[in-house]
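Project channel, design review

CF: Before we commit to the Trifolium pratense constructs, I'd like one complete example in the thread so the newer folks can see what an input/output pair looks like. Taking TATA box-binding protein associated factor RNA polymerase I subunit.
RD: sounds good, go ahead.
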Amino acid sequence: MEDVLTLTCQSCNYEDEVVELDGFYYCRSCGQQNLDVVDTGAEDGEGIGVGGIYLAKHKRRVYASSEAINVPFSTPKDFGSKGVKFDVYIKEIRLRYVMGLQIMIELQCEALVKEFKVTPLICGLVGPIWLRLVSKTGVFDDDWADKEFHDSHVQKEGESEGKNKLGPHHIFRSLKNRIPLVCTIVVSYLACHIAREAIMPSDMIKWAREGKLPYFSAFVEVERKMGHPTIACPISSSYMFRPQRALSVHKLESHASSLAQFIGLQLPPVNFYALAYRYLKKLSLPVEKILPYACRIYEWSMSPDLWLSLSKDYFGLPTHVSVVSVLVVAIRILYNINGYGVWEKSLSYNDSAKDSTKDPKEHKQRELDCTGLLQHLQGIYIEIADTHEYSKNLPTYLKYCKDVVFAGLEPSYGSHEEENMMENLWKHYQNEENTKPSEPGKQHNTSFNRRLMTNSHDDNFYESLSETIGKLKLDMEENRFCYIAPSVKQKQLDYVHYIRKKDKGGLSYVAHADYYILLRAFARIAYDDDIRILHIGVLNLERRLAWLEKRIGQCLHLKPSNVSCQFCSVRATDNGSGDGS
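CF: and here is what came back for TATA box-binding protein associated factor RNA polymerase I subunit:
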């Protein structure tokens, strides 16, 4: 009967049989190396741990011969007591990692097609993108392993020799640096982008966090398809394929642009029409009125921010911010949202402030349209709060934790009591949720919105005008906006340009209530983007439009020159006889 070594992992406290390779032992759960145990190789054998075992707690010293120290690490043919050949050792780790990432991409594409109704065309697009990426990284080149050996044995000043010793985790880290796990989401997103789908990096990040897009828990399915790691790859699937953190939207977009440039992939701009249509639908706004106007602004300006950017600057704006900025500008022009106090007037229902110099019927119709829009945006702002699905109720959250947060974890080995306790608690929470009455706060908010939209005149319900404006001011101050009182003089088609001012060393943003309500609603549909970021996007677009308008105006007022064209004169001379006859 062969001897088996069982240890408790110092990192995750997982107790099980350990895997030995290159004289060290690794946890089957997390893949961490056990620093207290070393196979000295005092005896040759086939079983794990048959050779001499060194335990740090025994305070026993192991002396290495000078010959062993001077021998290069790439010389031995075999590694560890299992006799794993060097070529097999390298190929197994490399192949398992690359194939695992490919399975993650396939799972993501499958989820995008089935769950989010993305065109199946992306399944054919990801293949060439992924293969070109793997080819460009050179991880399957014949000399890749030799280069890794050379880099690993370049002794750094102040480091010990054991720290530079090449092992399975070193090979894995090299692969992970060449092809990070996030490349799976990047490749999937690029396929959607090339297919002209209305999918943004913010969508990919949100779905990945919710567990709808296989990323954080994909290692479970990867191991099911590929099987458990072999002795030549003593790294657990969770350690190899489970991301440690989620990327931001800006970084994902930057990675996508960088990857496309790395593999020589020409990218189109974002599909403005599809994205604008999607955002307007989400806010329940009149698409047929706003979208054609927004498309004309887009075609005229052709903002460079609508292309994926390599900029790593903090103030580089995501592409979807540029799309929403065009919609905000279009709505401001169509509904004349320029700080005339339409929202304040709608609170007090004061009709005496009409401009007597204009046609009352025309002004009333225009003002009602703008008033209805602002009231609608104020009401829908609360309804479209972008809460993750796992936060709806306790059973949903527990299922999310089980499937995503703690995916792959099982009760302690042989602990039936722990397993029964988990099942009983699950049933208890589920029964409580089924008998739990609806939340009174939610009902109150719904009732509040309904009464607000129907213009209820209940004196006990409505707060005073000053209190309502005070609440909006507080909301604006939380986002570093300063409230501006409505403009007294109204001008026909006067577009107000807002600016940023320095206040005590920082930038402050000034805005009217009408504009802020419009900006706040669109910032929310962009998945809780900072309102200031969207405001900066609007300011950038306004400056670009003003610059284009000024240049076009200058060109239209230019007069043709009286000087004759030299090229035409030369051609006339060449075509003539040249002697004046």
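RD: helpful, thanks. The CA atoms of residues 82 and 414 lie 29 Å apart.
CF: The chain has a mean pLDDT of 76.
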